[in-house]
Amino acid sequence: MTGLLVSLLLVGVIAVILRWQRPAWYWMTFGVTFAALRVAVRYTSVMDACGLTVPPARWRLSLARMANRPVPESRAPRILRLRPTRTGLVLRLKLRPGQDAFDVASATDRLRHSFGMYGVTSRELHSGVVELRMTGYDVLRRVQMPAKTDHAPMRIPVALREDGSVHYRDYRAVPHGLTLGATESGKSVYQRNLVAGLASHDVALVGIDCKQGVELFPLARRFSALADNPDTALELLETLVQHMGDVYQLIRAAQRITVDVPDADIAADIWDLPADMRPTPVVVLVDEVAELALFATKDEEKRRDRIVTALVRLAQLGRAAGIYLEICGQRFGSELGKGITMLRAQLTGRTAHRVNDESSANMAFGDIAPDAVLAAIQIPTDVPGIAVSGDSTGGWTRIRAPHTSLRQAVNICNRHADRTPDVPALAAFRPAVAPLPSAAAPLAKTAPATA
Ligand SMILES: Nc1ncnc2c1ncn2[C@@H]1O[C@H](COP(=O)(O)OP(=O)(O)O)[C@@H](O)[C@H]1O
Ligand SMILES: [Mg+2]
């Protein structure tokens, strides 16, 4: 008897410690069962309390009256499925006549504490069917990406969403992206995650890092071209514009449309070309874009104009040629001069880390999702890496990338260094890298003994 009591006590203590220290483990051991039971037992009363029930149909009322039976109760949406996940529960509901998805969306906060969950979001799957995604704990506090993620070309699992699902950066669906955020808000870590994710894909990476290259040069082994100052950046971008022209020539040559070519085989972008002819896609990563757009002298102004023109051309025409832009900066508005808002309009994927003022958030979302602006300003300062990500459909979600250190990213890039494609056009910008440390002399020996 005492043995049983002691082991029960032990399990209880373990549960409390896990819940406090390792919420993810707690969820997978105890939390998920308790939560599923709680939802199943309380479902009808919670829905009633949250105003998500409808009165019984007229024919039921008449039937009850005729049969002299008690008046039937109001009905809650029917549960189609209750599925436990790694981070929470997914509840799929069939709405009753007269209800709409907006009713459920506006009740998510009430549902959240009624069911004792950490977060609840809802979305409409198709007419009349709504999915409630509930999380059992704060999944963004310590981001753990699931071991298994979807694998598709140019689709990178880059962060975790607040509803526990994986946030992908899909270059083929959203070719160009803009990442904004105050300094120390987590932009470079986000970009580093992208590089680490892209490293194992068949893609040429091009980096422009005018912060003397501190962020991207350590990853040089996986880069086909790098620039660390505005002059090189200009040459690099103009070379890319030329490369884009060459790719279009190639696509033109491959088209040769005749009547007997099936519609599906007519190539209009590189992904329609046969795999052996397809040029390598290029992702251009720009860190601290303002460095490219600011100028002090007349010469620098000319250079700036040419840089912005090249970027605008790449953004307008790059997608079909497989050239994708990923731009990071603290602000990206008209104060950076002419051409900037035009460039911004082409950058569909928007991500805003913590920003200091509303106007910075407006640069990311003002023109696509006004309520995301508020969410971006509310990001607290003590959790770097939290961001609001939206796209041109007006939808947005809170995300956080895993904390990949520079060392981890360097290791991943070195491991995939042999995947770095040789793009002849970019050969002049290929960073010179020493052989891997295993072959070279240890760093400590080459450094002077006295500092
Ligand atoms: N996703 C994240 N998870 C945890 N810590 C983060 C995350 N992103 C950033 N940080 C922390 O914030 C610091 C600043 O991030 P960084 O990306 O360099 O900011 P920025 O480039 O916006 O100035 C990093 O050194 C890191 O310690
Ligand atoms: Mg940075």
Key terms:
451 residues; alpha/beta; Threonyl-tRNA Synthetase, Chain A, domain 2; Rossmann fold; ten-stranded mixed beta sheet; four-stranded antiparallel beta sheet; 14 helices; 37% helix; binds adenosine-5'-diphosphate; binds magnesium ion; P-loop_NTPase; ATP-binding
Give the C-alpha Rg: 27 Å
CATH class of the largest domain: Alpha Beta
Distance from N terminus to C terminus (CA atoms, Å) equals 69 Å
| Tally of separate helices | 14
- Which sheet architecture does the biggest sheet show? 10 strands, mixed
Bound molecules: adenosine-5'-diphosphate, magnesium ion
Structural class comes to alpha/beta
The total strand number stands at 14
SSE topology:
Blueprint: H1 2-21, H2 23-49, H3 58-66, E1 78-84, E2 88-94, H4 101-106, H5 108-114, E3 119-126, E4 129-135, E5 155-161, E6 166-170, E7 177-180, H6 187-198, E8 204-209, E9 223-227, H7 230-255, E10 282-287, H8 290-293, H9 298-317, E11 323-329, H10 340-346, E12 349-352, H11 358-365, H12 370-377, E13 386-390, E14 396-400, H13 406-415, H14 443-446
Parallel strand pairs: 7-11, 7-12, 8-9, 8-10, 10-11
Antiparallel strand pairs: 1-2, 2-4, 3-4, 5-6, 5-14, 12-13, 13-14
Bound molecules: adenosine-5'-diphosphate and magnesium ion.
Magnesium ion binds next to helix 6.
